[in-house]
Amino acid sequence: MDTAATGLTFRDATDADVDALVALIESAYRGDSSRTGWTTEADILEGQRTDPEGVLAVIKSPGSRLLTVERDGAVVACCQLEHRGDHAYFGMFAVSPALQGGGLGKVIIAEAERHAHETWGVAEMHMTVISAREDLIAWYERRGYRRTGKMTPFPYGDERFGIPQRDDLQFELLVKPLAQPAQ
């Protein structure tokens, strides 16, 4: 058995998880704590990554779920899954910086893909990643995601998404085909 998967519990987030999830997401992407792991965006974005309202909106949204991952009763990771017709959207992915690099992310993304495919019957998973995050995009490519070249602008001026430290930020759509059901 994959040791990264040992002792993990996957469940849907509830209102009671909001504060822990905001703290987890912020710790994985912003500020000095994020520099412990490799997913930090601290050099390109300051300010917040999310807020309680944003997390609660994902929890409450129809066709969406915020998958929460626990180990020994502590929240260690999360990801958003949203059903969008023929595909699912994967977002709000965070792994505790202290646990990054040990294979936990691979386990979680595989579970998210399995769930989206089995629950919603979708053929693809979509996500958007800041195109300047070459290391992160390469990690997703090793998991089977492909760059599409389709870009959307970063929401400059909306501090709910952070305070950009450079003027060339944009999101690139990454896509992965999911396993087809056995006939």
From the alpha carbons, calculate the radius of gyration and give it in angstroms. Answer: 16 Å
Low-pLDDT runs: none
Sequence of secondary-structure elements: EHHEHEEEHEHEEE
- DSSP E strands, number: 9
| Share in β-strands | 25-35%
**Fraction of helical residues:** 25-40%
Taking the alpha carbons of the first and last residues, their distance comes to: 28 Å
Mean pLDDT: 85
For the biggest sheet, the summary is: 7 strands, mixed
Shape designation: globular
Provide a count of the helices.
5
Strand order of the largest sheet: 1-3-4-5-6-9-7
Could you say which structural class the secondary elements and strand pairing correspond to?
Answer: alpha+beta
How is this structure best described in words?
With 183 residues, the protein is of the alpha+beta class. Helix content is 28%, strand content 33%. The chain has 5 helices and 9 strands; from the N terminus they run E-H-H-E-H-E-E-E-H-E-H-E-E-E. It has helices at 18-29, 31-34, 52-60, 104-120, 134-142; strands at residues 8-12, 45-46, 64-71, 74-84, 87-95, 124-130, 146-153, 163-164, 170-177. The strands form 2 sheets. A 7-stranded mixed β-sheet has the order 1-3-4-5-6-9-7, sandwiched between helices. Strands 2-8 form a two-stranded antiparallel sheet. A hairpin with a 2-residue loop joins strand 4 and strand 5 (87-95). The two termini are 28 Å apart. The mean pLDDT is 85.
Record keyword descriptors for this entry.
183 residues, alpha+beta, seven-stranded mixed β-sheet, two-stranded antiparallel sheet, 5 helices, 9 strands, 28% helix
